[in-house]
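Work Package 4 report. The design task specified in the project plan requires that, given a folded chain encoded as structure tokens, an amino acid be chosen for each position. We show below one input record used in the internal validation round.
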């Protein structure tokens, strides 16, 4: 009997790169809506301007590399980078700040290494860290979570972006910033004296994190990625914050619920560390990758210089991902070890 000469891969389906990216973009919508509700239209202006710049820089890089524009622009990867970075930036950021971040993400972190599929670091997080290190004042100037009714409207948001010198906006520190700087008040008193603190982790922030959690769970349902990295990150972050939580003294690093629902926790767990290019590839590797990110997020938040540490933790572990892959490869059929020398 003649055997069919069919080589791997044997499974075929409709889930292309562009389809995956479209699903990721769709999953960010609940979080974007919540952020816009609490922090105003500056969130939407950030995302729109970042998307225009990302497509422009992507087209420029493709033209310089002599690659077909339509094919590569149609995979939506540049838009995903733009949306994630636009979400992470403070609302009402000036146009030049967003431009620098997008240029670093698309040109340096992505195309300098060969384009999509070759970048060792998450492009959006590279852009964010470049901005945070270079422009710390602008990157820590968040609008107060007052809701769209009390915050600047769409025209004012456009004015803040493109003519920032003529815009006089009110900003305040995030809950992570306030907790980081606190050295005298009990957490209960700190909550009462700062209007930006909500019920658990910061007014607006807790609901945004829940919205990104919902979007991430939908991506899991769609099998865009596996559960290993997000669950490992959230588990270790919970364990670390529970282990070091002292009940709310002035030296407290915050409760587990505070760390889970503040800053970019859920955005990082479900939209950043699940990047298939810059993360570990095996399921065991993803568990290690996500778990170490959760530990680093807590350590940098509490003991480091930057309150929200997701970007730094991700980039550190992006660097370690090849090492993790080397020691977590699945055993090949017929071999007792996954090591090449075994």
């Amino acid at each position: 009997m003649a055997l069919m000469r069919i080589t791997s891969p044997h499974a075929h389906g409709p889930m292309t790169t562009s389809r995956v990216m479209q699903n990721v973009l769709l999953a960010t919508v609940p979080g974007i809506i919540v952020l816009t509700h609490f922090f105003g239209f500056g969130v939407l202006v950030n995302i729109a301007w970042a998307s225009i710049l990302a497509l422009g820089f992507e087209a420029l890089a493709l033209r310089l590399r002599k690659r077909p524009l339509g094919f590569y622009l149609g995979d939506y990867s540049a838009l995903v980078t733009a949306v994630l970075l636009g979400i992470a930036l403070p609302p009402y950021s000036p146009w030049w700040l967003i431009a620098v971040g997008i240029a670093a993400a698309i040109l340096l972190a992505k195309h300098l290494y060969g384009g999509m599929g070759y970048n060792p670091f998450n492009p959006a997080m590279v852009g964010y860290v470049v901005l945070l290190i270079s422009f710390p004042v602008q990157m820590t100037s968040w609008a107060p979570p007052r809701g769209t009714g009390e915050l600047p409207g769409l025209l004012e948001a456009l004015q803040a972006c493109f003519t920032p010198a003529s815009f006089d906006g009110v900003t305040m520190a995030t809950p992570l910033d306030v907790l980081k700087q606190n050295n005298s008040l009990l957490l209960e008193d700190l909550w009462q004296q700062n209007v930006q603190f909500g019920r658990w982790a910061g007014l607006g922030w807790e609901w945004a994190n829940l919205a990104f959690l919902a979007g991430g769970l939908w991506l899991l349902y769609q099998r865009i990625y596996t559960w290993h990295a997000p669950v490992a990150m959230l588990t270790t972050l919970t364990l670390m914050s529970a282990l070091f939580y002292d009940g709310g003294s002035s030296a407290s690093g915050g409760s587990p619920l505070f760390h889970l629902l503040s800053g970019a926790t859920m955005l990082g767990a479900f939209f950043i560390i699940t990047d298939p290019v810059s993360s570990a590839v095996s399921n065991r590797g993803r568990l290690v990758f996500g778990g170490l990110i959760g530990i680093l997020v807590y350590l940098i938040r509490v003991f480091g210089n930057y309150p929200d540490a997701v970007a730094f933790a991700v980039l550190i572990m992006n660097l370690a991902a090849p090492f993790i892959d080397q020691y977590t490869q699945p055993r090949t059929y017929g071999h007792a070890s996954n090591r090449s020398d075994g």
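The CA atoms of residues 40 and 150 lie 9 Å apart. Validation will be extended to a larger panel in the next phase.
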